[in-house]
Design goal:
Blueprint lengths: L2 H16 L4 H6 L11 H14 L2
């Protein structure tokens, strides 16, 4: 791996860990229960097609 990539892999996760969640985000966490077989990619695709293509 190049030194640049190695340095980035160490920096990115640490920045993510330092970010604090707001109380509103914490409150919403786990508020939606979806079935285990829920296909979010399919639902997202359908929603985007409806939004941009009118389908």
């Amino acid at each position: 791996m190049s030194p640049l990539v190695e340095s980035l892999t160490g920096v990115i996760p640490s920045k993510i860990e330092q970010k604090k969640l707001s109380p509103n985000v914490k409150k919403l966490s786990g508020s939606v229960q979806l079935p285990k077989n829920y296909d979010y990619k399919k639902e997202l695709s359908n929603a985007l097609a409806k939004k941009f293509l009118g389908r």
